[in-house]
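Researcher: Sequence recovery benchmark, item below. Answer with residues only.
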């Protein structure tokens, strides 16, 4: 029998072949809702605009893990616990110090997160509360891993974590060795809020799939980091910055409009644009665009911001495609002095709150995730001994 192509296959057995699972609803969730037509994003009841204006990242973590906002004492308790978990075991730090300095930060984050499984918080008799404690520990530890690797690869000493301050404040302090100003902390905190949760994206789906086999939370988060790393998902923010920096290297010849037109002509993608669900402006991009403009005026990166706006206009005019969360987050991070290859790590440091919230939700009401595949190969071939092939 010859190799089958899709047209020849009896699709009665597999009536719903859907490449990329587009439009498939595989879970119910109370964690977030996206309306791709309206450009609306809600985390556990609260519109992203409301959270961006009022919340802190720690409040968003509590919200995602508990489906409600904390009262003052609950919030203080969570903050204390996140501070208490700000330590990475010596063997993990040794790995971070000794690994290849040229390694991709996302690869180091994935490996170090996986190693944390060997050093979990003290276990109880209750699996769900163990998962909750592990979610807090992971959220506290991932920024430490990212900052420590960046210091180590640059031959600098690792800065010990602070016993006070927000996640955003401590991360910038450990990265730079200096306490950040109020504005830098605010920018980082807002970025953490905006990236925390986003429905059934590829990395969250990965985390839930791993959870569904009754595996552990560290495996799920390491898997999710691996999924986020790709440029079609979280890796796009680094790709956006590299694109702008490549343009900058052209000096006087830099022409963002022509650059965009050339890429489109060649049927290449412009990173930071397009989305499977949003068919309009990504609501997170509104906040990041505003921030990028304000920061560029303060830091002198107006040209990068101007080019971003030119690319945006060209994409809208030529393809009617809007930017996603990754487009303006690139220039925002750049403006506060963060290296481009760390951007997806920052995405992970935030999204771990959403991943773990989904892990807890899946674990509380689990069913093995096990879809089917449409077989396009041959069947019942005759066996040919190896020396006759
Ligand atoms: N640049 C140019 N054309 C694009 C782009 C883009 N960034 N995105 C989509 N298109 C075009 C695509 O070429 C296709 O055109 P045509 O119908 O003429 O062939 C059409 O739009 C549909 O695109 P698709 O790739 O089939 O859509 P999808 O739903 O499979 O892909 C996507 C969504 C995010 C993978 C895609 O838009 C993309 O590759 N964007 C660039 C990478 C990126 O920014 N990723 C971050 C996603 S948001 C953050 C996150 O969740 O991590």
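Model:
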């Amino acid at each position: 029998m010859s190799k089958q192509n899709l047209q020849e296959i009896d699709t009665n057995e597999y009536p719903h072949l859907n490449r990329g699972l587009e439009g498939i609803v595989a879970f119910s969730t109370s964690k977030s809702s996206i309306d791709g037509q309206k450009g609306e994003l809600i985390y556990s009841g609260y519109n992203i605009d409301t959270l961006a204006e009022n919340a802190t990242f720690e409040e968003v973590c509590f919200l995602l893990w508990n489906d409600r906002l904390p009262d003052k004492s609950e919030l203080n308790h969570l903050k204390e616990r996140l501070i208490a978990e700000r330590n990475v075991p010596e063997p993990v730090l040794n790995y971070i110090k000794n690994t290849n300095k040229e390694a991709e930060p996302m690869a180091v984050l994935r490996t170090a997160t996986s190693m944390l499984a060997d050093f979990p918080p003290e276990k109880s008799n209750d699996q769900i509360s163990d998962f909750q404690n592990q979610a807090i520990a992971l959220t506290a530890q991932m920024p430490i891993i990212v900052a420590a690797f960046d210091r180590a690869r640059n031959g600098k000493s690792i800065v010990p974590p602070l016993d006070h301050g927000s996640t955003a404040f401590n991360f910038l302090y450990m990265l730079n060795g200096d306490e950040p100003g109020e504005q830098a902390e605010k920018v980082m905190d807002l970025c953490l809020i905006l990236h925390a949760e986003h429905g059934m994206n590829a990395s969250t789906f990965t985390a839930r799939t791993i959870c569904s086999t009754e595996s552990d939370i560290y495996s799920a988060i390491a898997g999710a980091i691996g999924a986020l790393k790709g440029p079609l998902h979280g890796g796009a923010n680094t790709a956006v910055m590299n694109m702008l920096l490549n343009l900058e290297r052209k000096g006087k010849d830099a022409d963002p409009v022509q650059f965009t037109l050339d890429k489109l002509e060649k049927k290449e993608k412009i990173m930071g644009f397009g989305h499977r669900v949003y068919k309009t402006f990504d609501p997170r991009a509104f906040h990041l665009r505003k921030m990028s403009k304000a920061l560029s005026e303060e830091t002198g990166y107006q040209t990068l911001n101007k080019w971003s706006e030119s690319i945006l206009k060209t994409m809208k005019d030529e393809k009617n495609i809007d930017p996603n969360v990754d487009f303006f987050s690139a220039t925002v991070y750049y403006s506060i002095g963060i290296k481009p290859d760390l951007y997806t790590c920052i995405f992970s440091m935030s999204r771990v709150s959403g991943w773990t919230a989904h892990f807890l939700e899946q674990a509380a009401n689990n069913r093995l995730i096990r879809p089917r595949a449409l077989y396009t190969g041959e069947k019942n071939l005759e066996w040919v001994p190896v020396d006759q092939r």
